[in-house]
Please model this.
Amino acid sequence: MGWDTLNIGLSGLQAAQIGLNVTGNNITNASTPGYSRQQITQAGASTALYSGVYGTLQMGVDVTGVQRVYSAALGAQVRQTQAASSGVSIYSTQVQNLDSVLANTTGGVASALTKFGSTLQSLAASPSNTGVRQAAMSAAQALVNSFQSANTQLSQINSGVNSQIQDSVNTINTLATQIAQVNSAIAQVAGSGASNTPNSLMDQRDQLLQTLSEQVGVTVNTEADGSMVDITIGNGVPLVTGSQATPLNVSYANSPSLAGQTQAVVQFQTATGGTQTIVDGAIGSGGTLGGLLQFRNASLNQAQTAMGQMATQIANSFNAQNALGLDANSAQGAAIFSVSGNSLQLATSDSSKLAAAAPIVTASSGGAMYNAAIEGVSGVTASATSVQAALTAVQAQVTTPSAGNITNATTAVAAAVTAANTALTNVTAAAAASPPTATAADVTAATAANTAVLAMSTAINAATAVPATGTWAQALTAAQTAATAANASTNTGSGAISAGSVSTGYFNSAIPTTVPPSTLKLTFTSATTYTVSGSPTASDNTGGPYTYTPGAPVSLNGGTISFTISGAPNSGDSFNVTQNLNGIADGRNATLLQNMQSYAPATAVGVSTTSAAAVIAANGAGVDPTYTGTPLQAGQNIKLTYNASGGFDVTDPYGNTTANAVTSYTSGSVIRVDGLSFSITGGPVAGDTFTVTASGIQAQAAAANTGGASVAVNGSGIDPTYTGVPLQAGQAVQLVYNSATSSFTATGPDGNQSIIAYTSGSPITVDGLSFTITGAGAAAPKTGDTFTVAPNVISGNSYSGGYSALVNLIGNTTSVMASNNTAQSALLSSAQTAQQSQSGVNLDEEAAHLIQYQQAYQASAKVIAIAQQMLDNLFAIPA
Model:
């Protein structure tokens, strides 16, 4: 019996010793990354001391193993939140850098655009001032510099992303190799027949998996015996299979957002030894690698594309308007800007090429000095105005004689004399210029007007010297004569002609620039009809009579000249349109350059109505050029509901309804709401609804494409049958061609892919977008050719508005990602806390275990001592 007691005590002593060792190991590894606390498992000894009617008594205790406390579910949760947190963190950091470039308010594009607009305003006010012209050109150069600086910084961000992608892939490969090696080591232990789990190797592998999750989102599949784990990334790309790691590669492809720029793409090795590119979206957004790729695709590429769009729009629209004006040399305006890559360039640094002047002058038919007035000779119109003011003052004295009125008349006549002298000097100089911009007849008329004004002055002097009514009557007659000689208009009705404008093609069929300038003349034959005469080109709509509608557009010169006449002209009244021969003093086109609408943010499409009696259509591009609010994004819409009061209730994209926002309805009249411009024609009834959708997408072929296929938007670019969530600004669909299957692989912003069979010219619809790719035979696309289709990220009705839309887009993304980063960090911390609460070492708990095992050790030692005493007593009994 003593021997049995001794063995029981020894087993307890050994169990307590192992427990103390495990507890001590836990305490010393409390701060070791990835360490999972361990505990011993015990069972009654397999050998029975006694078995009988009273039951079975085990001979002590067996330590069956040392196991780690670990939850696979909590480990997977930590990996998932770690990948999400790392992805959001790197995206947030990168988009903050991008935002700081675009939102630069001191030396960036925004301030350069403002300064450029300000100098154009000054040019409109002082077109003949060479200093002002040079300031405008300097501002244009500053704008170019700001674009180039911004694009350089964006390219640097792209290069930084490339480097970080390479570093991340290197880290992933290193970790994958280490995991494969640990897999092998664990499998060797399992294969050796050992009954205990290699806890330290399991901890090492789990820590490597968590570190790997910082780089990329992973899916981990564990074999039934726990010896091996297989790892895939993204949409099933193999990374580790048992003891074999499949390394990733990085290659470089041409950027879809900027010609000449390269971007890192990730590849994996196929089973046949080749490489296959992983589409960015297929990797997911998790981990540093996923976050970098998502940032590049959703923000950086879109920003670079938008900068390129803006540079092109500014260059094209500004050059187009400049070409509709006259420069400082009275020649057609030349191109000021060009585009290289995504940046603006100056096509010329010659400030005289800024076309500040409008090429035509419109005026009511006038008296002797009419030609000089419409030719823009400085001072002629001012002279006519001052003589009219003198006539008014003289009339006041005749009607109501007073000392004050005499003073006013004297002052006004003196001013008229000064103005008449200035006008005569300017007309004489204009006639003597080379080439002349006034005629000898103009000089004669100006001389006569000057003489008449001097006669008026003499009469006034006589009237003030001999203040008799008859003398003032003579002064009034002289003033009326002077006004007739200097007045620029002889029409008797209230009709007025607008300044007029020209369109593309005007300079190909312009009114001849002769002196005196050839004139197109509208003469009213009645209050409601007019004829057109003069020296038009063959394409002019001369003759008539034509019906007069007040305020309706009038087009001449083959449709390249347009203006309006308003009011009530009398029969015999006439209006003239002539070539502007004094462009240096005219700033009207500079005003158009300053205020021009650069491009349209959307088109009006889509109709839903319960009445066939009314139809809706977009006006032109569907954009209200006067709108200064925040433009609708692609896919957003407004709904108009016809009400009983004859107007429309309008519901915005967010569900807010404004009753009677359109107060009245006239069939065919223009309706402008939230930046959209459209018209409804017919007779709607109460309750009829009309939906107007802001759309507009961009479609472009990659600069590196080797095939000849092109891509174009179908109509508005919106698939009317699409019922999913529309793509937002910053998202895109990318199509890559495979000639072996004659199909495209289309990848959406969520990474999901679809295969689309290719037929040249057939409409393609993906994720709500509608477009066509065309190219067959020699022009067919080739394998690897890439096409990108996305909602327009440029919205706004001005250069500054368009850039602000881009800044707001990136700024909003920055704010969202910062919030997401905070939220994901909190989720990660929560997951780690949950894991550590189960697997981590609690020093207070381990201290209690130390006491527990120490007491067990002491108690077992006491059992052994008693057993020893029993044996000693037994051996002491005489034989």
Confidence is low (pLDDT under 50) at residues 512-517, 597-613, 793-797. The two ends are 18 Å apart (CA to CA). The chain is about 45% helix and 25% strand. Residues 130-191 form the longest helix (62 residues).
